[in-house]
């Protein structure tokens, strides 16, 4: 999806949702396009519907957490990251984002646990640990 054609992508995904209202992937994709456009409320609604259709959709929980964080709803973002990790314990990106949020909230020990978890499940994401170690 090209950044310049988000409106077109949203229109296409809206048509897909109209044709197949129970297609969680179309809901997720439209949510992603809305999020990229800056429509966090629309993204959250679409991710929520994708989750309603497929309650074990870890990626939708993670993406909804990102949108909630962008809106400043940090507790709800952590809750969605928690659920994504519960559904997929190897979800390194969810652990990383939760760790960053915990770090920003001053919860350094919890952030460290998350960053260590990232290293265990996604060894290529080594940089998170340097963020915490700098804080002492």
CATH class of the largest domain: Mainly Alpha
Number of helices: 8
Give start-end ranges of low-pLDDT stretches.
Answer: none
What coarse outline follows from CA principal-axis ratios?
elongated
CATH architectural arrangement of the largest domain = Alpha Horseshoe
Share in β-strands: under 5%
| Largest sheet geometry | none
- Given helix and strand content, the structural type is mainly alpha
Question: Which sequence of SSEs, written as H and E, runs from N to C?
Answer: HHHHHHHH
Helix content: over 70%
CATH topology of the largest domain, by name, is: Serine Threonine Protein Phosphatase 5, Tetratricopeptide repeat
CATH superfamily of the largest domain: Tetratricopeptide repeat domain
């Amino acid at each position: 999806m090209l950044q310049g054609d988000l409106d077109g992508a949203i229109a296409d995904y809206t048509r897909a949702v109209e044709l197949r209202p129970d297609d969680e992937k179309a809901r997720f994709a439209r949510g992603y396009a809305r999020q990229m456009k800056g429509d966090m409320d629309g993204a959250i609604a679409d991710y929520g519907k994708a989750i309603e259709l497929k309650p074990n959709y870890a990626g939708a929980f993670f993406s909804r957490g990102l949108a909630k964080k962008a809106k400043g709803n940090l507790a709800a973002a952590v809750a969605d990251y928690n659920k994504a990790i519960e559904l997929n314990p190897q979800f390194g990106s969810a652990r990383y984002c939760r760790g960053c949020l915990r770090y920003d909230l001053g919860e350094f020990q919890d952030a460290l646990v998350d960053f260590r978890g990232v290293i265990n499940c996604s060894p290529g994401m080594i940089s998170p640990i340097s963020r915490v170690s700098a804080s002492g």
